From TrEMBL:
<dbReference type="Pfam" id="PF00440">
    <property type="entry name" value="TetR_N"/>
</dbReference>
<feature type="domain" description="HTH tetR-type">
    <location>
        <begin position="31"/>
        <end position="90"/>
    </location>
</feature>
<keyword id="KW-0805">Transcription regulation</keyword>
<dbReference type="GO" id="GO:0000976">
    <property type="term" value="F:transcription cis-regulatory region binding"/>
</dbReference>
<dbReference type="GO" id="GO:0003700">
    <property type="term" value="F:DNA-binding transcription factor activity"/>
</dbReference>
<keyword id="KW-0238">DNA-binding</keyword>
<keyword id="KW-0804">Transcription</keyword>
<feature type="DNA-binding region" description="H-T-H motif">
    <location>
        <begin position="53"/>
        <end position="72"/>
    </location>
</feature>
<feature type="region of interest" description="Disordered">
    <location>
        <begin position="1"/>
        <end position="29"/>
    </location>
</feature>
<feature type="compositionally biased region" description="Basic and acidic residues">
    <location>
        <begin position="1"/>
        <end position="11"/>
    </location>
</feature>
<dbReference type="InterPro" id="IPR001647">
    <property type="entry name" value="HTH_TetR"/>
</dbReference>
<dbReference type="InterPro" id="IPR009057">
    <property type="entry name" value="Homeodomain-like_sf"/>
</dbReference>
<dbReference type="InterPro" id="IPR050109">
    <property type="entry name" value="HTH-type_TetR-like_transc_reg"/>
</dbReference>
<protein>
    <submittedName>
        <fullName>AcrR family transcriptional regulator</fullName>
    </submittedName>
</protein>
Length: 220
């Protein structure tokens, strides 16, 4: 304590009020800042739809609200970028390609089904949140289908590859089994079809491999 009544601690680094750690995010390069804002926006859009505020986004990202407008011209462009990121199939395709083909068939397909189901539920819930409840208008429909065709075909290819080591067990070609699996996955994962109770990946695989009837030993 000094003679004037002030504390010596005021001069020590990190002890005075001016040294209080900031709650704001550290400065980032533009590309990293953009990615961080998109990551903060996605769960908020899934919860609040397009009504999410830039203030909510800024708080979630740990930045000042004005920082958003140094990266994006407006809220709509940020939401569009977030939706585009969510629809990008690169990551789930990489996860699907990484499933170990040496795993037992049931375990292999259950892991793949889990990857695809998480993707489906995330995308569908996001589209519902932003108000997309139906296919695009006819003029845009062909373009929309074209954009979806390549990743869908790649998913079918990867699924067929996972089935191929055990193709002798199936009554259909592995390509057809992969297509059937996609149909069951979609209908068993869509929140409006399942009323919010999606079929678990294990059940989807059991339905695909075993059907719904009990099997006698001689039928196995």
């Amino acid at each position: 304590m000094r003679a004037d009544g002030t504390s010596d601690a005021a001069d020590r680094p990190g002890t005075g009020p001016a040294q209080c750690p900031s709650k704001r995010a550290r400065p980032l390069p533009p590309d990293e800042r953009r990615a961080a804002l998109i990551a903060a926006t996605l769960p908020l859009v899934a919860e609040y739809g397009t009504k999410v505020s830039t203030r909510q986004i800024a708080e979630a990202a740990g930045v000042a609200e004005g920082t958003i407008f140094r990266v994006f011209p407006d809220k709509d462009s940020l939401i569009q970028a977030a939706v585009s990121t969510a629809l990008d199939p690169t990551e789930p395709l990489a996860e699907l390609a990484a499933v170990d083909p040496a795993l037992p068939l049931r375990e292999r397909l259950t892991e793949a089904a889990g990857i695809m189901q998480r993707r489906l539920i995330g995308v569908i819930n996001l589209l519902i949140a932003i108000g997309v409840h139906s296919p695009p208008p006819p003029k845009e429909h062909e373009e929309h289908r074209a954009n979806l065709r390549a990743p869908r075909e790649r998913i079918l290819e990867l699924t067929a590859d996972l089935l191929r080591p055990d193709q002798h067990q199936f009554r259909y070609p592995v390509e057809e089994v992969a297509r059937l699996m996609q149909l069951v996955l979609f209908s068993g994962s869509h929140p409006l079809i399942t009323e919010g109770q999606p079929i678990a990946p294990e059940e989807i695989v059991a339905l695909l491999l075993d059907g719904v009837r009990r099997h006698h030993p001689e039928q196995s």
